[in-house]
Amino acid sequence: MDVNKARVSIFWFRRDLRLNDNHALSQALKSGEEVLPVFIFDTDILKKLPDSYDRRVDYIHRALIRLKQELLVFGTDLRIYVGKPLAVFEKLQSDYQVTTVFCNTDYEPDAIKRDELIKNWADGAGIGFRSFKDQVIFEKSDVLKKDGSPYTVFTPYSRVWKAKLTTESLLPFEMDAERFKKLPFEEIPTLEDIGFQQTDLTFVKPVLDEGAVREYDKFRDFPALDSTTRLGVALRFGTISIRECVSLALKCNETWLNELIWREFFMQILFHFPDSQTKCFKSAYEGIAWRNNEKEFEAWCNGETGYALVDAGMRELNETGFMHNRVRMVVASFLTKHLLIDWRWGEAYFAEKLLDYDCSANVGNWQWAAGCGCDAALYFRVFNPEEQLRKFDKELIYVKRWNPEFESKAMNRIVEHAFARDRALHTYKNGLGK
């Protein structure tokens, strides 16, 4: 051990790009060591992204710029690295006398493997590795049935979740900024440095709009009103605290609270059943004979099905990286039921395009739409896109915004609804009977 090297604990930013109410950061700053904050642009993740024009990478980059500005106030800076996490930590070990690595727990299968690799390295190097619950209120095995097994149906899970919630569950974690290691400012690597390009993204610090939350249950299904909270991306990358969100939901709106609980439900499903990332939770659905017509899939991707609401949603997604939640359900049902295309194709497309992409929620919601998930819509529930349009965009405001030529396209619809519905019911029934 080189006693001349500075002795530090490392705080590793990941899905928690904020200083306030950050559990593991708070613990690191209480550890007694100076804290070196780091972020790693993980090349194992970046190389899987198919397009250098990726709004999520741009979002992270801009969130890091804001973090650096906030840290400068405390006389320190964020050290940003590009590479494989293990190689970065080996370099940090050579530059510093590292005592402990602090981070917040991630529950996705790939993240678990990454963290096991770093923990094994840390154990071998005599370095502590400590992770903490931060992006959820209840994690892993916090909410279980009486027999110790995980819930696979939302309603009983949410009931127990709410019963377990206490005031202490929502207390924010304090930050002792005096414990940061003093660091000079360093320029952040540019997006071009890491192989990406600036997008049309406008980054704003997320704020909780109490008015929007109070009205959430009244207007959330109407895409033209844009009356959702738009906090999906902030929760995905941790630029806002889940404890702050739940506290407001408890005060203002149970429907929005239930949406936050759905997020945790899907996270614990993926944690306990990691195979569900690529396999139907209900294994019987693996017998469905998907048509998987590539031309029809391309038409769906491009918003050229001839169904006004479906096409508007896909064009909004392609142009902005966002799609209204009601419309997400319609386009997912259309792909899996009307076109009989495997839910995994749609899930992968959303994973590529969505700014607020979250693996567990994306997989969970796609399996819900396809009927094959843990607590899914029954297979014979087939959304009628025209009826959905009449109910939720009667004045065609949303459709005209994203799909202005919808009337001319309707003459050449990719498939007729009644025919597609009957075909889907027949195909599902046969597949489930195998």
Automatic annotation (TrEMBL):
Cofactor(s) essential for the protein: FAD; (6R)-5,10-methylene-5,6,7,8-tetrahydrofolate
Residue stretches making up the Photolyase/cryptochrome alpha/beta domain: 7-137
Annotated Pfam families: DNA_photolyase (PF00875), FAD_binding_7 (PF03441)
UniProt keyword terms in alphabetical order: Chromophore, FAD, Flavoprotein
Family, similarity comment: Belongs to the DNA photolyase family.
Name the record gives this protein: Deoxyribodipyrimidine photo-lyase
Organism of this sequence: Sphingobacterium faecale
